[in-house]
Amino acid sequence: QVQLVESGGGLVQPGGSLRLSCVASGITFSSYSLAWHRQAPGKQRELVAAITRVGFTTYADSAKGRFTISRDNAKNTVYLQMNNLTPEDTAVYSCVGGAYWGKGTLVTVSS
Questions:
Q1: pLDDT tens-digit readout, 71-108
Q2: Cα 99 to Cα 79: distance, rounded to the nearest angstrom
Q3: Terminus of the chain with fewer CB atoms < 10 Å: N or C?
Q4: In 10 A of CB 81, how many CB atoms?
Q5: Residue 80, pLDDT score
Q6: What is the full DSSP assignment across the chain?
Q7: Between the CA of residue 34 and those of 30, 48, 76, 78, what are the distances in Å?
Q8: What backbone phi and psi angles, to 5 degrees, belong to 14?
Q9: 16: burial class by Cβ within 10 Å (0-12, 13-18, 19+)?
Q10: What residues have CB less than 8 Å from 89, skipping those under 6 apart?
Q11: What is the pLDDT of residue 90?
Q12: Torsion from C-alpha of 55, 99, 90, 13, nearest 10 degrees
């Protein structure tokens, strides 16, 4: 059974940081490109960042310079380090590998 389980979300003040984690099981983790998506209330889901099997990364314009995606194949984990958060970053963040999605973790940026 394939599972992707996110963690690390929560409430943070504007300008703060969070580190999201996504642990995968049931897949050959190192064979997959991985990505983080987010969906804000009332908005469409959007790609935030992606990382290939060999570590090449891409970012949405809104994430460039503030977010960093990384992976640890030994731990079957993909991370999203988010800095300088703004209220516009409030969303449910989900990780995806191939056709497999996690359920997401809620990030709320508010004072």
A1: 999 999 999 999 999 999 999 999 999 999 999 999 99
A2: 18
A3: N
A4: 15
A5: 98
A6: --EEEEE--EEE-TT--EEEEEEEESS-GGG--EEEEEE-TTS--EEEEEE-TT--EEE-TTTTTTEEEEEEGGGTEEEEEE-S--GGG-EEEEEEETTEE---EEEEE--
A7: 10, 11, 11, 7
A8: -55, 140
A9: middle
A10: 38, 82, 107, 109
A11: 98
A12: -40
Residue written as token pair 């958060």: 85
Residue appearing with tokens 């380090």: 81
CA 73/CA 33 separation, integer angstroms: 11
Q: List the structure tokens of 45.
A: 């889901």
